[in-house]
Amino acid sequence: MITVAVAGCAGRMGSAVVDAVKAADDLELVCGIDPSCPRSSEEGAYPVHSSVQDAIDAADFDVLVDFTRPDVVEGNLRVALPAGVDCVVGTTGLSDETLAELAALAPAGTCLFYAPNFTTGAVLMMEFAKAAAPYFPEAEVIEMHHCKKLDAPSGTAVRTAALISEARGRDSAAPGKETEIAGAEGARGALVSGVPVHSVRSMGFVASQEAVFGSLGQTLTIRHDSWDRTSYMPGVLLGIRSVGERDGLIVGLENFMA
Ligand SMILES: NC(=O)C1=CN([C@@H]2O[C@H](COP(=O)(O)OP(=O)(O)OC[C@H]3O[C@@H](n4cnc5c(N)ncnc54)[C@H](OP(=O)(O)O)[C@@H]3O)[C@@H](O)[C@H]2O)C=CC1
Ligand SMILES: O=C(O)C1=N[C@H](C(=O)O)C[C@H](O)C1
């Protein structure tokens, strides 16, 4: 049995993870961590703590899952990793440098696993974008999310841009040569790893992304949509089941996909 604590258990993702862990025969939900936690406390089915330190003081668990906030996750990991708790992190907004620094806080045998996106479809979308990148001089990323998302651009878009940039080894030719219209700066998006990234926030979306490639007389669009947060759960459970056998920093669900 793998024992699990879920940070952000009252949130959109955290509450779905709680349900998925409870439904899995080989996993045991030890507690949640969430200072607001209305849903969990009402249900009363499992203890909910207001900090990771309180959770560690109260009970042992093998894995901490974190779906909290970009301004909270680092503090949670600074407590959990030195205590030797394997961490499965979906919260976006941490830089590569910070992830490496946090992983170094953990004793040998402890794993920090971060996936900017836990859906198999988004992992494949990024792999296909990486494969296409060398063949197209232009590439741009458009990501579309629900209005309550706190960060922009999305973690998936940042990772996709980095993969495109690595695969083609040069910046896009497009941005920077246009005349900016006063009051409309930013129309060409944010340059991430040399790739323009555009963020849309609207009701109706959960999470969608297009990687748009262009060359002479042709475009290639690679698109992924998550229409429901259940799409992330198989990947999160795979991460929980896999981290115990791994060590150090691992970035990306592709590392565990067969
Ligand atoms: N990697 C992936 O596949 C995915 C990643 N995400 C990422 O996950 C993160 C969470 O997203 P989402 O579930 O939509 O956000 P929510 O705002 O719905 O959930 C976050 C929860 O964390 C709580 N929280 C705040 N501070 C703490 C703390 N110190 N300890 C524990 N919990 C805390 C929040 O409480 P309060 O509301 O009171 O602040 C809230 O209940 C985001 O960074 C998002 O980008 C989302 C979907 C998929
Ligand atoms: O906040 C979200 O909802 C999502 N966040 C992740 C990201 O920033 O890429 C993953 C997915 O896009 C949903």
From TrEMBL:
Residues 2-118 form the Dihydrodipicolinate reductase N-terminal domain. It holds the Pfam family DapB_N. (S)-2,3,4,5-tetrahydrodipicolinate binds at H146, G155, T156. Residues 121-256 form the Dihydrodipicolinate reductase C-terminal domain. GO terms for molecular function: 4-hydroxy-tetrahydrodipicolinate reductase; NAD binding; NADP binding; oxidoreductase activity, acting on CH or CH2 groups, NAD or NADP as acceptor. It comes from the Bacteria. The keyword Amino-acid biosynthesis applies. Keywords: Amino-acid biosynthesis, Cytoplasm, Diaminopimelate biosynthesis, Lysine biosynthesis, NAD, NADP, Oxidoreductase. Its EC number is 1.17.1.8. PROSITE patterns: DAPB. NADP(+) binds at R39. It catalyses: (S)-2,3,4,5-tetrahydrodipicolinate + NAD(+) + H2O = (2S,4S)-4-hydroxy-2,3,4,5-tetrahydrodipicolinate + NADH + H(+); (S)-2,3,4,5-tetrahydrodipicolinate + NADP(+) + H2O = (2S,4S)-4-hydroxy-2,3,4,5-tetrahydrodipicolinate + NADPH + H(+). Its main location: cytoplasm. CDD domains: DHDPR_N (cd02274). Catalyzes the conversion of 4-hydroxy-tetrahydrodipicolinate (HTPA) to tetrahydrodipicolinate. Homotetramer. This is 4-hydroxy-tetrahydrodipicolinate reductase. It comes from Xiamenia xianingshaonis.
